[in-house]
Amino acid sequence: MTVVYRGKILLFTIEAHPLPCSYMARKRKTRHHRKPRSAGGSDDRENISWVTEKEHAAYNTLFRDVPPNKVAAILNKRWIDPEWVLIARKKRGYRKKRATFQR
């Protein structure tokens, strides 16, 4: 690859990464929409989480477009220690561009 910077030609070579592909797949980050686009979610920064491809695939396999309250119910029923309960509720005072909480 050749890159020109301020009139100077810089040369870069791209070499194969020495680590196995499975390691790179675990470390590569992808965009996860916290509120799915199919549910009206946006591409705004506060709606995006950067997760590994493996985490992203696992979440989508388990929950896809399931709303947070149903995700909590599934986790409580199948995964969480019965002595605990996971509760999902909508934030009060949440504004689209900035999260603020009213007391």
Automatic annotation (TrEMBL):
Residues 26-37 have a biased composition (Basic residues). InterPro entries: HNH_nuc. It comes from the Bacteria. Residues 26-47 are annotated as: Disordered. This is HNH endonuclease. It comes from Candidatus Lloydbacteria bacterium RIFCSPLOWO2_02_FULL_51_11. The lineage of its organism: Bacteria, Candidatus Lloydiibacteriota.
